[in-house]
UniProtKB/TrEMBL annotation:
It comes from Symbiochloris irregularis. It holds the Pfam family adh_short. InterPro entries: Fungal_SecMetab_SDRs (IPR051468), NAD(P)-bd_dom_sf (IPR036291), SDR_fam (IPR002347). Keywords: NADP, Oxidoreductase. This is Uncharacterized protein. The keyword Cytoplasm does not apply.
């Protein structure tokens, strides 16, 4: 992992994504691109941009908007003409999700577009997408995995507590980010298609 290694993270405005950006900038070398749908709203991102202006780029990216995704891809191509090393598809939402039968259609669609369906089912769908892409891209040498960041004490991780004790956060977003970076930096192509926790353990599909 050297100064030419490049990283793109979606959902870099807060939570685990923001902590990963901070760790990558402070403890690693390399080029970091942080995707956020409303970057101007987040002072911490702007401060990081000032501090690491040569190797931190902010991308205005809403992953539920195909135009935004396409425009972002073009911008990344310009920034990284030799290609991207690590893509961390971190953005996700679980906001105010009631059981599907009680949730208005437009809200379900929004969650579907961001995560891929209602939260738990959406994460299962994301895992299936991981398997499909890992198979499709195996020959090209891509390593594609799903990771469980732990129940981290972010806006999202703190919210499900109301649903029961078992959802108590088990780590801070920084601990989660540290673990996730260790996991992704340890990967080799033979790990493609696997599912890991932020502690590096394998999870059964
Ligand atoms: N925290 C946990 O306990 C936990 C457990 C299991 C899995 N996860 C997964 O880990 C990832 C990070 O979670 P977190 O706890 O850091 O969540 P978080 O604190 O709620 O942050 C979510 C991030 O995703 C961004 N985002 C949401 N919808 C987006 C969209 N359409 N386009 C672009 N960005 C969007 C948010 O941006 P805005 O600031 O613009 O809203 C924010 O940066 C998520 O995929 C989540 O599902 C978390």
């Amino acid at each position: 992992m050297g100064k030419d290694t490049s990283y793109l993270l979606s959902g870099a405005s807060r939570g685990v994504g923001l902590d990963m950006v901070k760790l990558l900038l402070s403890e690693h070398e390399g080029i970091v691109i942080g995707g956020a749908r409303n970057p101007d709203k987040y002072e911490e991102l702007q401060e990081l941009k000032k501090k690491y202006k040569d190797r931190f780029h902010i991308l205005k990216l809403d992953i539920s908007d195909s135009k935004s995704v396409q425009a972002s891809a073009k911008e990344v191509e310009k920034l990284l003409p030799d290609g991207l090393d690590y893509l961390f598809n971190n953005a996700g939402t679980s906001e105010d999700i009631e059981p599907p039968s009680d949730t208005p259609d437009d809200q379900l669609t929004q969650v579907m577009q961001t995560n891929a369906i209602v939260y738990k089912a959406s994460k299962a769908a994301v895992n299936m997408v991981t398997l499909v892409i890992s198979n499709d891209k195996r020959e090209e040498g891509w390593t594609v995995i799903s990771v469980h960041p732990g129940i981290a004490s972010t806006d999202m991780g703190n919210r499900p507590q109301e649903y029961g004790e078992e959802f108590k956060p088990e780590c801070t977003p920084e601990e989660s980010a540290k673990g996730l970076l260790k996991v992704i930096h340890s990967l080799t192509p033979k790990d493609t298609g696997s599912f890991r926790t932020f502690k590096g353990d394998s999870l059964p599909w």
